[in-house]
Amino acid sequence: MIECLTGKVINIEPETVVVDVHGVGYLVYCGNPYKFGEWMDKSITIYTYQHVREDAIRLYGFFHREERRLFEKLLQVSGIGPKGALAIVAAEQPELVIQAIENEDESFLVKFPGVGKKTARQMILDLKGKVAELVPSLTESNERVSDVVNRHTTSLPKELDEALEALRALGYVEREIKKVQPILEKQELTTDEYIKLALKEMLKS
Asked: Which residue ranges are recorded for the region named Domain III (predicted)?
């Protein structure tokens, strides 16, 4: 298994980033690729999970090992694949996800794309009592990332459009996106921040 990649981010798409490691470009799937925007053409370490299927081998990337650990825990649940697990990790609200699991709150868990009542129940059965220890480290990791994100942008239409494409790539449908789009349009944020705000709004009761 590839533990991590250290190199330069040379391209960002709604689902992926490309990391150049000594002249070899690795395609890495991410929940929020634009989170890596501040590291374009700069050296960064991305922690990876290698997922192997009969028809494909994919690398999934994360800012921190703790995010990858939560991703791996979610993959253990029947009915949750890599795309669904990425959508949950990308919301960057692990404490709410884990609280929902511990409190058996199915109504919160079904807000994620691809998670129905049956899958939510399975998450609770499989993970209750097994993921609570991840909360402090995940929260600290996300705070460290937030400290270095640039809060200013001069190309709002492009940033917002990228964010909407990233939400679609995560599996959110147009009906869900249109509910939060008016809120996003009132802001002047980076792509990463638009995505974070949209995910936060989608998870509200």
From this structure: 149-205
